């Protein structure tokens, strides 16, 4: 894929499968802390980051997304490691580029919500601009094929991120996406179709939504975005069973305790593989060209998405085949003793 860049692939009406979700995966494994969600695993255990890059490609991702989400100056300040912001970014980007070259995939740099941006506050805007600038320049320096700018609540911050990619990104393509919280508008009052349309008109190569909402509650917005945007759109939900009453992973309530599930008890709301397959099929039918999963993603999920988009990645060699099961399989594999003694009790 690396011989054909993002713009060329999109122009040729090809789909892009993208694995995200590094933050939650490393939190589950015990290598970063829920709360600050800073990717310090890049500094502490770079070999594990490289391994997950490779694992996601093996499962079907067309892109190695450098793990620099929340790797900006403001977040590193929270954990007292701001002086290592450049080291973290360059290491994550270098590892991502090495895996991309080895596997023939694209490598994307990653910027995100800064947590300091405030519309109308010049000091906050300049702080956000400075963070975008340095991360974009590091991505260019490291050979990124394009830049992902994601998880923006405000249209104004997403617009600023796109402007910075245009200014400092050396012509690299830009994928820009919003997070939809409990309402169907940005924090600064635009509908998501209107916000995405404006970004597209401002020069973003791909626009859409990521994070926050699960497939069921993100899909209606995506279909509205598809109606107004002329170019490629992206959809990267979280793999959790959100509902109209609880439309985001942050709003999900654990029924046994009545407490917020985010982030510790979200596994109780995880989508099944069948549900992820249904989501991918519906997204493809809706015209989503840039598809993936965000926080909560894992390799078995992205393999399902890739397969529904017509791929057969290396991991598909080991896709489930229950016909070989000694109880539930076909006649060639079922043992009569187990079928007659165990199956009736299951």
What does this structure look like?
By secondary structure, this protein is of the alpha/beta class. Helices cover about 40% and strands about 10% of the residues. It is built from 13 helices and 8 strands. The longest helix is centred in the middle third of the chain and has 20 residues. The N and C termini lie far apart (about 45 Å). The relative contact order is 0.12. The mean pLDDT is about 95.
Briefly, what is this?
This protein is an alpha/beta fold.
Write a concise keyword list for the protein shown above.
346 residues; alpha/beta; eight-stranded parallel beta sheet; 13 helices; 8 strands; 42% helix; 11% strand; globular
In the predicted model, the low-confidence regions spanning at least 5 consecutive residues are none
| Largest sheet, strands/sense/barrel | 8 strands, parallel
- Structural Rg: 21 Å
Q: Can you count the beta strands? A: 8
* Oligomer type: single chain
Order the strands across the largest sheet as they lie in space: 1-8-7-6-5-4-3-2
What is the residue-mean pLDDT, rounded to a whole number? Answer: 95
Distance between the termini: 46 Å
Q: Share of helix among residues?
A: 40-55%
Q: What is the strand content?
A: 5-15%
Class by alpha and beta content: alpha/beta
Shape type: globular
Number of helices: 13
String of helices and strands: HEHHHEHHEHEHEHEHEHEHH
